[in-house]
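Data deposition worksheet. Section B asks for the primary sequence of the deposited chain exactly as it was used as input, without tags or linkers unless they were present during the calculation. Section C holds the resulting structure in token form. Section D is free text for depositor observations; keep each observation to a single sentence. Incomplete worksheets are returned to the depositor.
Section A, Depositor: J.P.
Section B:
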Amino acid sequence: MKDAKQILKQQFDEMVRSLQTTIGFNTEKSEPKEGAPFGTNIRDCLDSVLALAESFGFKTYNCDGYAGHVDFEGDGDGVLGILGHLDVVPAKAEEWIYPPFAAEIHDGKLFGRGAMDDKGPMIACLYAVKALKEAGFAPKKTIRLIFGCDEESGMQCVEHYFAKMPYPTVSFSPDGDFPVINREKGIYQFDVVCGKLPNGVQINAGDRANIVPSECKATCDKPLNIDKYPNIKCVKTQRGYSYVSTGKAAHGSTPDEGLNAAHALLAALAEAYPDNAAIDFLFDKATDTCGKKWGIALSDKESGNLTCNLGVLRTAQDGTLTATVDIRFPVTYSCRQMYDMLRANTPEQFPIIEAHVSEPLYVRSDSELVTTLMDVYNSEMGTNLQPIAIGGGTYSRCLPNCVAFGPLFPREEQTIHMPNECVDLNNLRLMAQLYLEAIYRLAK
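Section C:
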């Protein structure tokens, strides 16, 4: 067998160009079309990646535009699955230094939505498998790279895919943190219908439950006291007052890494309209990122504290305010327990409507999968780290015997779901080497 790592090194520039092409597809979820359930751009991106893999000599399968896979067939039993996604969260171009889908390289970093989540690591895995193939590696397990198209909006892609295809024997998802994530908090996303706002008042914020909103807008018929809120700006209009609050976007699983633009405006509105139940409830309960005010501040030693992100606010034409909330709860609790606690601490007249919910993931630290991946990381990096827990949700929880493995390195700047998402090219090179070694050990 030839030196696969040397082959991978020689093909790094080609890998970067393929990643730039893949990022160039704006794969935000859009209107479904025939054969493109999550929008034509996502389907085009999937077709492009599968065509690239076919040019390397791999067999591919397109599962109705929901997902696709690339196979490097083994000569024994079992399948090693590598699950990632091509869809991305929305990117507001005005918040970016460089265009979010131009995939430009500046100061050794490739900027673009999906560079880290999850196009970069999946292209790195594809090229790692290509290098192993060209080196003459003959895997025992079939190596199957599965490209999903709806991870950010409910994971319908893998639900559809695994209704038609069997689960892999063992899997990892390059869609989290290094060294290994073997514990993922439960996800409880829901709408709470908070009742009507005062006449003339509207408030709107956010696009996704799992993103800390960086902007919140409100209109009302009287001035608000915003002197202590420097991030709120006011414009007097013919009909009253228009307010814009600005914050900092972050992943909904780590709300304290951002600044929720809705919190300040809710505080100002609560002061101006103290008798409105909708405003009072959200300000009192939902502006606390640990859930203490809501009575849901759970914690355990395995995965830490619950987090709460007020992701979306929408005012209907009749003045009804609906909030979309993203909660990540510790691994020793369940979705049913989460609902029961929320219901017990929310006014009866405010309906709680489940959206995306997912039970926690917990794969034992002494399992063969976790110990193998930990040995790969510690051996290659010269470290002695232990597996970790996160609040984010990956594909790992969608199938048995799967954990997340990278791509974010310890102490690396977190740009996933944020403006100016980027991958450091040196880190891209390193993660590709780690994936190559992990795939080799798990498939041999």
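Section D:
The first strand starts at residue 59 and ends at 63.
The mean pLDDT is 96.
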